[in-house]
Write a sequence for this structure.
């Protein structure tokens, strides 16, 4: 049986969401445990895939990626999904791919340099076997973007 998430685990996870570079001795101070105890808890959280990784968050605009867009894609039948997903994995400008309900079968979040590279990416996507149609929304401003998940009960 897996160890349930307790208040100490939640405090560790919350702090790591704020600062993924937190040193284990700092985490140990925050939660009142020894460094080996915190290390063991983190190892168990990683094994349970509750912690997927530790990453730096980069500023796309700082790297010349001025266009963010969401592309809604309608793929012709679920038999085409595996090939579609393989194509998605091969495109570095595609940051996210989600299977959705509603308008289309998938939504892609992309980041690219400019309208010319956006148009070329869109053409490649539209040429993939099984892609029936696409609809794109270009982001004008971003007010919130996060991978943080709420650890407190949602009201």
């Amino acid at each position: 049986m897996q160890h349930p998430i307790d208040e100490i685990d939640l405090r560790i996870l919350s702090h790591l969401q704020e600062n993924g570079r937190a040193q284990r001795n700092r985490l140990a101070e925050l939660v009142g445990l020894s460094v080996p105890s915190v290390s063991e808890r983190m190892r168990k959280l990683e094994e349970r895939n509750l912690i997927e990784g530790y990453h730096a968050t980069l500023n796309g605009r700082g790297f010349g990626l001025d266009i963010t867009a969401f592309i809604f894609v309608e793929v012709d039948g679920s038999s085409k999904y595996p090939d579609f997903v393989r194509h998605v994995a091969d495109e570095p400008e595609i940051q996210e791919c989600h299977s959705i309900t509603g308008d289309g079968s998938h939504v892609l979040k992309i980041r690219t340099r400019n309208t010319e590279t956006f148009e070329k990416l869109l053409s490649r996507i539209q040429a993939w076997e099984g892609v029936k149609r696409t609809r794109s929304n270009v982001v004008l401003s971003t007010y919130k973007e996060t991978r943080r998940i709420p650890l407190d009960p949602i009201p």
The chain has five helices and four strands. The chain has a mean pLDDT of 93. The beta strands are 67-75, 94-99, 106-112, 131-138.
